[in-house]
Design goal:
Elements lengths: L3 H13 L14 E7 L18 E7 L19 H10 L3 E7 L7 H4 L3 H18 L3 E5 L17 H14 L7 E6 L16 H4 L4 E5 L31 H10 L7 E6 L1 E6 L2 H4 L29 E2 L5 E2 L4 E3 H6 L14 E4 L6 E5 L4 E4 L3 H14 L3 E5 L8 H10 L3
Parallel strand pairs: 1-2, 1-15, 2-3, 3-4, 4-5, 5-6, 6-7, 7-15
Antiparallel strand pairs: 8-11, 8-14, 9-10, 12-13, 13-14
Helix pairs in contact: 4-5, 10-11
Amino acid sequence: MFPTAVKLLFLYVASALASPTDLGRRSTPSVAAAYYAGWHNGDFPLTDVSWKKYTHMIYAFAETVPDPSQTPNLNGSDPDMLLPFVQAAHENNVTAMISVGGWTGSLHFSTNVGSAANRTAFVKSVVSLAQSYGLDGLDFDWEYPGTQGIGCNAISVNDTANFLLFLQELREDSIGKNLVITAPTSINPWVDATGAASSDVSGFSQVFDFITIMNYDIWGPWSATAGPNTPLYDLCESKDRQLGSAITAVQAWNEAGMPVNQIVLGVASYGHSFSVDTSSAFGNGTNLLETYPAFNASIQPVGDSWDNASGNDVCGNPQGPGGDMDFWGLIKGGWLTEEGVVADGIAYAYDQCDRTPRVYNETTQDYIAFDDASSFSEKGEFIKVMGLRGFGIWEAGGDYKDILLDSIRTSSGFS
């Protein structure tokens, strides 16, 4: 449960948020969603998905291609799994969707929506994709309109405006108008033509069923110090530690015109690892684990077996291991017990401001910022207090025996 002061703050902010607008044709049932990574199906088959605990499942990814008239590419996500995925979802009354784009698959979004002709062609290709596989909806994971993502994306100052024009045309399509249309978003509204966060995203509220704010990867190996992957709150931290959080992200999108009942909170079933020497890990010679310690950026601990391998990325740039550690990886690796609590011999800290845990192995000097059942429970309570639409997990396979899923379902109000 939240400390009383934090919960009172959330209640105050919730009361100040703009009222939900009339959504007309769209009802607002709660969303319990997750992404299913097709490339992980060997370790996490469709039969392992707890379908009855979800309302929406999103297959990742269909990547953009240079020609907008061509169907987005499924080659990186086991295209043979998509039809069985849709069948399994429908057998369990779950909305079956596909995510177009992703970190490595957003290279051609800008050009695909950059002209009227391209927008029309792209509408036809994504609608065809949905029809071909019997999908109920499309999730557009553009990382990110108007700003550079992985490093070699096409980019234009008009990306956000063109994206809206594309979505409006998609909603005018005889099939597109009936699809569930969503998008995972950055923690701040997408930038406008000036490069600043958009002050008015109300047009997007008319075309999306909901957005999922990706409140993860806020801190990582690219940061100045180790820090929380998924901060719930950060305004009680010093200014240099206020990189963004769930509460500030919801405020930013809502103040720009996105109703709270069209906002889903994106949550992560993985954490980031850092190489931290013992003197930095424990403050002032105590046995108390620091929550923002300095780390050795020249050493990247390897994550679990799902961690990114070393090699060249899609832009041709060399990359090392990402250091990502799934919740199941923390358990299999001995950081946590089978019950998902800290194991013997592992240091643990739960930050009282950002409301997320850290663990540290003094022998290996590996430090991991992640989420556990307690932090997922608090995120679920935040969803309920703020009146958000629900939660969306990246990714379904990262959990372990539904420890995280059950926690957030219960606290956010699902039975």
